[in-house]
Structure formats: C-alpha cells, structure tokens
Specification:
mainly alpha, 6 helices, globular
C-alpha cells in the first residue's frame, strides 16, 4: 500500500467511525427520551417473548451508547458489534415487512418524524452494516489535519444520513396523508 493511500485511509475510516457513532448515539438518546414509547415499538415487532421486551427496551439504547463510544476508542472491536446490531435491526424489519406489517414504527430514533417500516430502511441498514464492517479495518494513526478532515467528514456523513431519514419520513407521511384523503398514490 502506498503512503498516499495510507494518508487517505485514516481520515476515511475515521469519518465512517464518527458517522456511525453519531447514528448510534442519536438513536440511543431518542429511545431513552421516550422509553415508554420505545417499549411499545419493540413489543409491536412481535419477535420477542413479552418478558424480554421490558429489559431489552432499556438495554438496547445502553448498548447503542456503548457501541457509539467504543467506535471511537476501540473500533476493531466495536465496529463488528455495530454491524451485528444493524443487521439484527434490518432482519427484524424484513421479517415484519414479509409478514405484511408496514404500518409499524421502525423505532430507529423515536423523533417527531417516525418512520414506518419499508424496504428502503432495510437497505439503509444493509449499507450501514457494510460501512460498519469497513470501520473495523486498521488504519494508521491520523495526523492532526487528517483527524480534523475525518471528523468533519464524519459529521457530514451523519448530516447526510439524518437528512435522508427526514426526507424518507416526510415522504412516508405524505403518502399516508394522500391515502387518507382518498387519493391513490
């Protein structure tokens, strides 16, 4: 590997790590802010025994926080954990979509812009799984400028993710309102 490719790898991997860490952190904070609602969302997936929902609705956001922080400290350990969580989330969505259950909240962030299950969200998580796996790759210790570049790019990656989620959620709301009004979409 050339010196130039090593110079590029460190900020790119840092950007991915920071972007995914931000995704996990904001998801956890949203769930913790609305624990009761998140418990209902988790139960609504109908994948867990009822007794498992109560502890998991608290443990899951705590695990997301641990993954977010660990991605910045020990990415080779945390990135596969992030990928596994994202894969489980995608599988849970896919199972419910296959069951025809599109009208439940995905539970991703518990924001005002809730998203109903869709294959778009499954593919989004699949892409995030691949990025999380890439985040586990080793990289040279970044220079200060490479660190700043990677950090800025990671924040931009998170902003892009958030924007896309907002647009998908708004699109879902618009399609739902059109159906309620009796207009076919």
């Amino acid at each position: 590997m050339s010196v130039q490719s090593l110079d590029l790898a460190a900020p790119l991997l840092l950007a991915v790590r920071i972007g995914i860490a931000c995704i996990f952190l904001t998801a956890a904070v949203g769930k913790l802010r609305h624990l009761t609602v998140f418990e209902g969302v988790l139960a609504n997936y109908r994948l867990l025994p009822r007794w498992a929902v109560a502890p998991l609705h608290v443990l899951l956001p705590l695990a997301e926080i641990a993954v977010a922080v660990s991605l910045l400290i020990v990415p080779q350990v945390a990135a596969p954990s992030a990928a596994l969580l994202l894969l489980v989330f995608a599988a849970a969505m896919a199972v419910n979509l296959r069951r025809g259950r599109r009208d439940i909240d995905c539970g991703c962030h518990q924001s005002a812009l809730r998203q109903r299950l869709s294959w778009t969200l499954v593919w989004r998580n699949t892409v995030l799984v691949l990025l999380a796996l890439a985040a586990a790759l080793p990289a040279a210790q970044p220079s200060t400028s490479a660190w700043l570049t990677g950090a800025g790019a990671g924040v931009c990656l998170f902003a892009l993710y958030s924007t896309m989620n907002s647009l998908w959620a708004l699109g879902s709301v618009s399609r739902h309102r059109i159906r309620i009004a009796g207009v076919s979409s």
